[in-house]
Amino acid sequence: MKITRRLFTIAGTAIALSIPLGAIPALAQDAPIRVAMGDIASVESLGLLVAIERTKERGVPMELTFFNSEDVATQAVVGGQADIGVGAPYAFIQNSNAPIRMFYRMTTLLFFPVVNSEVYSSWADLDGEEMTVHSRGSGTEALMRLMEQNEGITFSNLSYVPGAEVRAGALLQGTINASIVDAASMRLLEEQAPGKFMQLPVEGVNATDEALYANASFLENRTDDLTVFVEELIGTWEDINENPAQVAEWRAQYDLLPDLPAEAAGDIEQFYAEAVEGGVLPLGGGTPEDAMDDLAFLAAAGQVQAPGEDVDVSMYWDFGALDAARQ
Question: Which residues does the UniProt record annotate as the domain SsuA/THI5-like (predicted)?
Fold first, then answer.
């Protein structure tokens, strides 16, 4: 299950904002921590949004900026126009040697490959067929590349459609016949078209879906502020795992996603309960062992070079803020 990417926004923002990188002020000690998200704010984002609000309550200013793609958001962090990004940029770091490092593991991969059972009934049926995933470089793409290898098939094309609920809608409309969705969208498919869609098996995958990463200069210069933020991330994740129903209460408390439709708002509790049950919201923030699992998964999917015995995870991760927060 990938936490649902819903097309609902904060403060009435209708689309992800494309902001010229040069328009964002340079890093300063007393400036807000600038978080770059290459997506629109959604139910999926509530845990992060709550942690940001809690951090602000402790006197650390933060602001969230939306970019029109994850690639643009990553470039903003690399160039210092933003401080923190959302994603798991292992391949980008390996290919570019970019001065960015992950520092907090937010979600793990748990997806549901699904097909229109009137068209396909197995992985073998997808040989030479099109598969629709979330975005280029995403966990959904990596997983489908891995399944090509594991099942001995080759997709004719991978098409990119952000948002599990958007892909589910396309399946229901018949515009696509094979995709990968999260648990909430899988449930929607089963409710709207009982028996029409079937889930294909996936086993033995343990990898990060989304982490937070930062520019190395930020990690060095804003250590105390980042430690506060990580403390709040850890605490928020622990609270959600203990009682997922709190997320809906926090949304009201902090006036988050005010334009969320009533139907989606009513789904928050179930959504987070499923996320907790599926182990999508890991506790602790990440370990070197998690990083090695990520590299092994991405290597199997052909997105990074296979890690050798002497691999140094500090190329990808900086655990300083986590270690300080845990203490």
Answer: 46-246
